[in-house]
Write a structure and sequence with these properties.
The termini are far apart. Helix 2 crosses helix 6 and helix 9 packs parallel to helix 10. By secondary structure, this protein is of the alpha/beta class. It has 2 domains: about 140 residues, Murein tetrapeptidase LD-carboxypeptidase, N-terminal domain (Rossmann fold, 3-Layer(aba) Sandwich), CATH 3.40.50.10740; about 150 residues, Glucose Oxidase, domain 1 (3-Layer(bba) Sandwich), CATH 3.50.30.
Amino acid sequence: MAFLTLFFSMSALAADTTPRRHTTPKRPHHPAALRMPAALKAGDKIAIISPASTPGNDNPEKAAATLRAWGFEPVIGQHVLTRCHSYAGTIDERCADLRWALNDPDIKAIVCTRGGYGSAMLLDPMTHEDFNRNPKWIVGYSDITALHSAMVCSGVMSLHANMGGAIGSRGANDSINLMLRDVLMGNMPSYTVPAHPLNKVGSARGIVLGGNMAVFTNIGGSREWDFLDRDNIRGRDIILFFEDVSESMPRVNSMLQALRLKGVLSHVKGIIVGRFTEYEPQEAYDMNQMLAETLNGYNIPVCYDFPASHDEDWNYPIIEGCQAELDVSPQGVTLQFVNP
């Protein structure tokens, strides 16, 4: 009898397959602070590399001349002028230059010669440790947005700004080049620009993310490098900025809808629309009007024609991953970066 009692008790236990759920209070997510690379000082080394397309033959040396005039020591990468199809070398060659510049602790910043295409090819062989072991500025825009995404995903701020071509051709005393020099040397930028008739007034505070619209939209959703969905970004307020070149209005609209459908725009607290260049307006309907049709549906400040673009005369340095305050008023727009 005792055996039967034990048997039925064990059978009942075996039959009870209800999962035992142990619930614990959900802790709020507190993302780690992104690190700002150290300010440069006279004599510091700056690497010049080509992670994407091959620049003109005089690009690296002209950029180096400007960096020397600022008191830095430029060091040119081994493959900076290499050609492999439309790229500055094979993936392995470009990765080798990028790893060298990132891993050498004596190099304090990296200036890219140009954009074009190819930076995203380097991300698969790279790791987050490659980008955050020795935090340093990566300087560039356009296709270099892929590297900015990798830096921010790895917990380090990056610098969307003119690169080798403009640094060299515009020279050491150019006003926009001097903005770049000041950021490299630790000065936090503050920009005031005129009002635009399509602006939506308001104020926002958050970390600034974005860059070339096509590049970061394509990277969005990737396993490792979607900077809008990383642990060090998730839960933060975001000010999103974007610009592009040679993209049609339907193509830009498609990218904007992708950001909307992914839910990105619903987490953004402010939007900075840079300048879209080399596209064909549709009669009296231009790019900004098209963007406004979607963006005005969000109850956040939006500004248009901000100095972020492929126009080197209209491309202010923007610190990606840095906290900033955006104020859009009827009188104009102010973007103030805040020292972390």
